[in-house]
Amino acid sequence: MTATATATTTPTPAPDTGTAALPPAPEPRRRNVMLVGTVLTIAAGTMLTGGLLAAYFSAREITQAAGEAWPAEEILIAMPNATLFVAYLTLLMSSVTAQWAVSALSSRDRRTMYVAVGLTLMLGLAFVNALTFSWGQLGMVAGADPFSTTVYALTVSHLLVVVAAHVALLVVGFRALGGQFSARNREMVVSVAAFWHFAVAMGLVIWYSVWFLEGGP
Amino acid sequence: MTATETAPRATSVDAGAGHETDAGRPPAGLAGWFTTEDHKRIGRLYLGTALAFLVVGGVLGAVLGVERINSGLQVLTDTTFGQVYTLHGEVAVLLFLVPFFLGLATYLVPLQVGSPDIAFPRGSATAYWAYLLGGVLLLAAYAANGGPGGGSQVGTDLYLLSLALLTVAFCVALVSILTTALTLRAPGMTLARTPLFTWSVLVGGGLTLLASPVLLAQLVEMFIHHHFSGDFGGQASYARISWFWAVPQVYLLAVPAAGIAAEIVPVLTGGRLRNHRSGMAVIVALGILGFGAWSPPAAAAADFLYVVVGLAALLPALALVGLLGDTVRGGSFVRKAPLLLALGAVVHLLLGALAGAVQVVPGLQLRGTAWEAAQMHYTLYGAATLAAFAALWYWAPKIWGVVLGEAAGTAAFALTFWGAILLAAPDLVTGLVSDQRLQGGQFDDTGLVTAMNAASALGGALAVLGVLVVVGELLRRTRGRSAAGAAANPWGGHTLEWATTSPPPPGNFAEPVPPVTSATPLAGEATEATGATDREEVKR
User: Nearest residue on chain B to A36, judged by CA atoms?
Assistant: First the structure.
């Protein structure tokens, strides 16, 4: 029997006949599959952010051209600028801790990596808490006016991205606890950290475009 | 057994899919289909579901056509006509064309690049099920009086959610496919050596991945606005969705069609593309000019850049005709169904690009008239659907292990090609002489326009017959297929998917793919490898 014939007709492991079988054929080299997939996802997420911001600024231009206030006076007064500033600062800090986790893994310091992943998750949750609190403070009614609608579209979409980043980081955390990943095998950790950075960057763009420009520092 | 025998390799299907058995066989029956992470099964699921939705879209189109035969409405009211019209467009693009090409890519791209599996198989499977759920919810939303003109609050919310779900599903599927093409190529297969279909998926899929989130952003905002205020916003809001299949974005959906034609024509004429890279360049040009995420129609109608891009989109279509015409001239034209279908797709792409170029001229004011419907029918039905049928005929041996009939293929070509011509051409005339707006169900009852509407309806009926022929032939052949499958390379194909059995085994390739040294690694070897038996099978 030739090697070719065996490979095509024998899908089950070869019985031990005492002869030496060659090792399995090598898989094609996988070139950063996880990282490339993450980059593509981030590209799509960037376009999502761009689409939402385009809708926001378009609505802003139309409203202001019509001589109406943007945002409405009562929303501007209720805008919790300090809370929002702290919320997005917290989110920015989570980016540092996410990168700290990658760095710790690269240094073969698993214990520090666990701490960094845990801190990142906590800071992310703190941001979610602060954002939802700010929604309550603002008292905006979705659908009532273009500002409320577009701001909810932006912040809810961002919230979903942050939640997705939490899920991905939780998976990484549990896998790390299960003994996966090492200084050489860290592509998934790097990819999830990159996605986390994207979630943070999206948040900062929203903070600047909406809360900073409209509400001031 | 000798000492040189190769031990069986653990395929990535075995390794990556928790539900596959050690032997690489999936669980039997429905459980196997529900839990599969095999890209070939997922691809087949996509193709089957997309064809089922095509039948739905065809029936809707036929109803619309019947309504147009005489002035005045017979079956549908003003409101329901608008609903059926928008549903017809959404089914055609979002439930048939995009998922069909995604399914084809899910099946073929790993094979064409010599990979044993697709990247993120679970993501790919999830995307399919999300697409199916989104499609069913879309139909349910219309049934519940949702849709752009619907009167039901819940139904319209469901409509927007279903479109958002579909968009997310497409993005997930595209990430999986594009990652496969970018990272899992066989040794030696540089991007410049990528098969043209895979290249078209990279270009068209990449740009669709960038355009779809813009649609998603619109949908999120529209959902929030509608859910809390109860106001959909009428036709202006629908225009924010339908830009996805309007000029110039519509050419993005024709990019895979160009890739399919460029793949089929050289193989079946025995000619060679004069320059593989020029084929790649044409596809890139078509993609870039079609990337209309920046141009929502309401804002861009008089935009200079919009007009220039609309006119320039004609150039890659002309270049494709020149490239493939040169290939046919260098080979020999043998009447085979996939070749007819592929060439027919190219002709329709050119007609669509011509119609699109005229449409963007501001002074003619053709936007929103029947001309726009004609342009979409040329591009989406003529070019993209003919290419989809060409792909079915060409790759059916690889996908299902069957060779589809020549007679049925020729009939499908004649019905679809001439049906699409007859469907679209009268609308060009109508668009020039009348401002009849199809979406609102308002018809011009002057003699010429009435005759044109009747001719267009006849074309639609022929097109529906073409769909039924395709689906019937596929069902007939796949139900009665033999366990042996088809020959590995019945057409003498040049790319790696033809280097494995039809259909391929778990893990796709029984042996490691040797280093690739050209864009057509099997060219010249195909005839020797497959011999006369394969060619005889095709003749049968």
Answer: B179
Q: pLDDT by residue (tens digit) across B109-142?
A: 999 999 999 999 999 999 999 999 999 999 999 9
Asked if B7's CB is within 8 angstroms of A17's CB, the reply is: no
Note if the bond before B248 is cis, omega within 30 degrees: yes
What pTM does this model have?
A: 0.88
Task: Please tell me the distance from the alpha carbon of residue B404 to that of residue B384, in angstroms, as a whole number.
Answer: 20
**Which tens digit of pLDDT belongs to each residue from B23-63?**
456 677 788 888 899 999 999 999 999 999 999 999 998 88
Residues in chain A closer than 8 A to B224 (CB atoms): 142-143, 149, 152-153, 156
Nearest in space to A131 (alpha carbons), one of A168, A95, A158: A158
- For B311-314, the CB contacts below 8 A with 24+ separation are B311/B357, B311/B360, B313/B247, B313/B248, B313/B251, B313/B286, B313/B289, B313/B353, B313/B356, B313/B357, B314/B353, B314/B354, B314/B356, B314/B357
Counted across chains A and B, CB pairs separated by less than 8 A come out at: 167
Q: Note whether A203 and A162 are within 8 A (CB).
A: yes
H-run or E-run covering B462:
helix B447-479
CA-to-CA distance for B406 and B416, rounded, in angstroms?
A: 15
CA distance B230 to B151: 10
Asked if B169 and B163 touch (Cβ cutoff 8 Å), the reply is no
The ipTM (two decimal places) reads: 0.88
Q: What 3-state DSSP class applies to A164?
A: helix
